[in-house]
Amino acid sequence: MAEVVGVLRNAALLQIRQIERASSRLPSGRGGQLRFLLLHAVERFDVLLSQYDRELETISQTAMPEAAAIGLRANVAQKFERLGQQLHVTYQLLNTYKDSVGRTDVPIGLQHLLGVVLQELATQPADPIVHPDPHRMYSTKDLVELLDELLTRPGDRPFRDSYTGPHPIVFNLPALDPSNALLSPVIAHEVGHTAVEETLRAELGTRIDADVQQLLQHHLPNLPQPVAERVRGIFRAWCGELICDAVALIATGPAFALAFASFAPPGSTAGISTTHPSVSDRVGFHLQILDELGWTPLIVRRLPTIHAWFTEISASPLLAGDNVESFLRAAMTRVATEVTDIARGHVDAPLDPIESDALLDTLVKSVTSGIPAVEVGETVAGPWQIILAGWIAAINPDYPAGEQLLDAADNDGLNALLIKSLELSSIVTSWRQHDRSGS
Amino acid sequence: MTALVREDIEARLAHADDARRLTVTPLLDRERQIGPGSIDLRLGTEFLEVPRQNYSHIDPFRQETADAVLHAEDRRFFVALGDPFVLHPGQFVLGSTLEFLVLPNDLVGQVLSRSSWGRLGLLVATAVAVQPGFHGVLTLELVNAGAVPITLRPGLRVAQLQLWSSTEATTRGYGGSGKYNAPLGPQSNRLAWEEDERAVLQSISDAMLARVLPGSAPRPATDEES
């Protein structure tokens, strides 16, 4: 047993030093905080290793029956094994993202957009890691939270509390099309999952739990406890999606609804997803929120076929027709207003429909002419105004709405022009801010 | 042709008629960038570098070599406004202007290096012609011909655009097909795409060889020869 423990211990030590060396070699630049996060994790691993070493030493120095010593050593061996698993996951994390730190192939416009999303939605300083991912489409991951789940044991000080630097946030973007400007509002939804979903869902729960319980009793009376818990779990997941949809709609306006509809076209099968409400219900939810935010007149005027199509989709959901579905849909309707209200409280700079409308004629004209949309008079266009102008420029009211959304999202030239527009507008904004500050 | 001076440039930038308006966006510091007879242009954020290794030479007439050297191995990278980018002695990279230009069909332009950079050994543009009707950012050929590395930063004013107007607008202005095809970053070499001229020159070369050596077959181009 002593030999096995020694091998496990040395294997762990070897991997700690490997992670330390590789982390130290990570470049600076965007995502460079990963180095400091991993070196912080290495400190934690070293502490654990020392602690287990001391336990082994105590066993060696304490007089006890051989069987007892073997049992205690086996216990320490398990700890080394667990440490080895943690190291393995950390090593995989490092290996997955090391080439995405300090990338120089990310267009400035896209970098700016990710910065804006984090600034608007993240609750603490963050450092984006842009990772074109061959498997996932759009998703985000806070690596501090990931390591916290991995390393914090019951009774420990949470790992996340001991790390004080900006959180490295991974943006997994579609590997074949990472710079798709028109789909970029989806990123705001994904950042919502990472940054605010947990907090906002808890806030929502305190407001609506009693009503939801009543609805559950109404639609599904006398449900066995485990089944009821499972249904409530589905509803919680749905609420998370609705919250992040609301956050994205408040921050980015109709551009999120357009991106969503082209990214997740209405499905053809009925049935309940345990993670997401149906597309038709979400489209209806989007229309409702956009209406509450004052966007409907603009959408009806500038995108009449899209508005009609969204209305049609949301009015004809594909239903499984069972009681669970009835409950979930009724509960979703019940919480919609609260979801919007809570999300509004979190977004610092909601996109304003009236301000945006005043700029859109000029911005759309620029985009339609193939010229970067940057300024209207003295006003610099914001990123989401530019993206919305791109959508409006791409959609011809004389053609079917759904196909046009897909065609627009797939238009490389248009997306490149929008990314360039985002870059130039960010540069003009920074320049003017510097001028005003007089520094 | 009449050279445009400051007042002409200002008038063209503000022209009410889309067909005669000159667009330069963004103009970060209008007062400083518009000179008595030119517009200063800034270095953009996007660069294109052709690595030196693995290729013996470039022959634009050999399509496959040109494609491999000039395009497949291109390294495109971005540097944020104000961030440093060091150009070493002898190093060549393509950059572009920060400004997106639209020239109406009655204006023609020429891009020149700003002399203050030239005196440091930096070549930015070798009298790049800007055709009437041009849309896009301009590609800049950046070469450090001096003996010491030069730190460049996107946003620096490195070039200047001189403009001339003609009395008549051309009816065949420069421009690719499609409204979203304007260059938005540096463009690599396009010589090899001029297939028709390549074929003409090859044919003339073969005919001349046949006169000297009757009965000879057209010469296949080889790596050694070309």
Description of the molecule:
By secondary structure, chain A is mainly alpha-helical. Chain A has 3 domains: 2-174, no CATH class; 185-346, no CATH class; 353-437, no CATH class. Chain A is built from 18 helices and 5 strands. In chain A, the strands form 2 sheets. In chain A, strands 1-3-2 form a 3-stranded mixed beta sheet. In chain A, strands 4-5 form a two-stranded antiparallel ribbon. In chain A, helix 1 runs antiparallel to helix 2 (33-61), helix 4 crosses helix 7 and helix 7 (185-195) crosses helix 10. The longest helix of chain A has 32 residues, at 66-97. In chain A, 44% of the residues are buried. The mean pLDDT of chain A is 91. Chain B has 226 residues and is α+β, with helices and mostly antiparallel strands. Chain B folds into 2 domains: 2-191, Deoxyuridine 5'-Triphosphate Nucleotidohydrolase, Chain A, CATH 2.70.40.10; 194-226. In chain B, strands 1, 3, 9, 11 and 15 form a 5-stranded antiparallel beta sheet that branches. In chain B, strands 2-8-12 form a 3-stranded antiparallel beta sheet, with no helix packed on it. In chain B, strands 7-13-10 form a 3-stranded antiparallel beta sheet, with no helix packed on it. In chain B, 31% of the residues are buried. The model of chain B has no long low-confidence stretch (mean pLDDT 85). Chain A binds chain B through residues 104-108, 111, 368-372, 374-375, 411-414, 416-417, 420, 423-424, 427-428, 430-431, and chain B through 23, 25-26, 28-29, 45-46, 76-81, 98, 100, 102, 135, 155, 178-182, 184.
Write the topology of this structure:
The complex is a heterodimer of chains A (439) and B (226).
Chain A: H1 2-24, H2 33-61, H3 66-97, H4 108-121, E1 126-133, E2 139-142, H5 143-151, H6 159-162, E3 167-174, H7 185-195, H8 197-219, H9 225-252, H10 254-263, H11 279-292, H12 296-302, H13 304-315, H14 323-346, H15 353-368, E4 375-376, E5 379-380, H16 383-394, H17 401-409, H18 412-437
Parallel strand pairs in A: 1-3
Antiparallel strand pairs in A: 2-3, 4-5
Chain B: E1 2-3, H1 6-13, E2 23-25, H2 30-33, E3 39-42, E4 46-49, H3 63-72, E5 75-78, E6 85-87, E7 92-96, E8 100-102, E9 107-113, H4 115-118, E10 122-123, E11 128-130, E12 135-136, E13 139-144, E14 150-152, E15 157-165, H5 195-212
Antiparallel strand pairs in B: 1-15, 2-8, 3-15, 4-5, 6-14, 7-13, 8-12, 9-11, 9-15, 10-13
